[in-house]
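quick one, 629 residues, struct below
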Amino acid sequence: MNCTLEKHSNVLTDDAKKTIRKALKALGKKNLAFIMHNGSFPSAKDQNTGFGSINTDGGKEFIEYASGLFDAIQLGPAGKTKSCDSSPYTGTIFSGNPLFIDLKELTTKSWGKILSENTYNEIVNNNPNKDVNKTAYSYAYKRYDEALQECWNNFKSNPVKKLEKEFEHFKRENSFWLDKDSLYEALSIEHGNDYWPLWNSETDKNLFNPQSIEEKMQFADRIKEIESKYSDEIELYKFTQFIISKQNEETRKFAEKHNIKMIADRQVAFSDRDTWAYQSLFLKGWCLGCPPDYFSKDGQAWGFPVMDPERMYNADGSLDEGGQLLKNLYKKMFKENPGGVRIDHIVGLIDPWVYKAGKKPKIEEGAGRLYSSPEHPELSKYAIAKIEDLDMELTADKEKRVKTLSKKQIKDYGRLIEKIVIAAAKEEGLDKDAIVCEDLGTLTNPVAAVMKEFGLQGMKLTQFVEADKPEDPYRCCNIDKKCWAMVGTHDNEPIKMWADQNIHTHVGYLHAKNLVDDLFKDAENKDDIIVHLTDDAEFLAQTKLVELFASKAENIQIFFTDYFNVYDVYNRPGTSGDENWSLRLPDNYKELYAINLANILKLAIIARGHEFAEKNQKLIEKLDELQQN
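---
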């Protein structure tokens, strides 16, 4: 149920926000970003359709709430998801998710009232989770489809001239991806399912993967046949994408007025729709995954396709069709998200682990790193590292196996980053600081070298600290200045839950000792503080937040469960179904007991030492006043 705590307001005044911003600046913070995926946005009163969106009134109200305090909102992947899989990390690379549409706006005059108020109200009233801070994914997926069909029928019969003109322009401007994606929608209807490997026509499976001139001509005729047979369904798909694009643009402008930028999230996966459309650009018989590790003895067989290295670049170094596809994707993302792009699993771009389709991602079954396996009978032709660069005493899955790299090799490993990602950002008026690299977990030597070469900013997650390792990179005293730091992401338990699990444990004691060494250097009662940290989960959780802001990191992100003390998990890796990826910020979030940011920043300043605290004494006093209120 939505939280029903005693009424309390966490809404900060403009003066309070200014004081907090001064404290952030004093601590050397350039960006404070709030992490919340689109579906998790709260709803405005009587507008809960079963799924959240930043485009709704609820989303815009949150932008106003965050304005003056946060610099950016980190969203999740924005692609269209499948009816049977709510994970945003398997969505399409170009098409937007229809669940992000604000249906309420479609009932207004500006959209020609193409959705009836009766339909909208019926969707809201029958939402099975209208009183729960969870999405109703399956319900929303079905009802949005029905609503958008109604919108399309009404638009056809009585179009708004201005929108009609904009729609035609949208189709022309985005035809390079929109035509294929909408054709897939038609073929899904033709075959009764949206998973193309199950289609009973080899022709339809390979419409954009002809093996001869004859096939190309034959397939062209089949495309025309489907486009004619399902012309209305294809136009509906395009119209839906037009609505998403138009509403996204309006929200961006609204956010910019409130000095909030959006950061996009590029998942490592390609959806079924994309795999079908661009299969000629993928490495046949190989999939992307993760090698065996502590968490998975057989590795992680993701099943995602791998871009064919031989389709990425031409002999003269220019982009081939595969490289151009990726550049178009990143250009679209940077254009639509001026705050930048978070790249999930950066290893998958620079030094991917690949395995044979139908096999496990294990060395003994033929798996290896695509560009770091000169000894591999099949992958050697793609290798950048040479045999003499390897520590042959280490197996192919080990991070340090590539022990030496020349300047040219580092450039070769980073070619995709330089020629596609950074180039796309520059062409959209952004620099490399607009690139956020998710480099948690496995970080091979080639990936580390590329990130250093191009000055890319990675992530530091303080919840991941291995407390018995003094040099752990996620510990406060070791965190780099040029990075994005956070206590947890969408894959982690909220910090309060983490703290509850660590008090009264030996590991909790080690964490407490490290925190005292890093944050309470000048304290005379260090042993008492350690005892307090090992006994009091609230104090431990707060101190982990102080650690975050006391670190040297210039950029801070905070997940919505951590900021608002929502004691629940958004994603449990390895699980599926409507319950996963379903957590939302409660609609009454302004009444929740959010973290006391003023107090946390005050303690972070004090943690920097006497000299720093004395220099910022007036600021400490102002923060102290805020904390009391």
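The longest strand covers residues 282-290.
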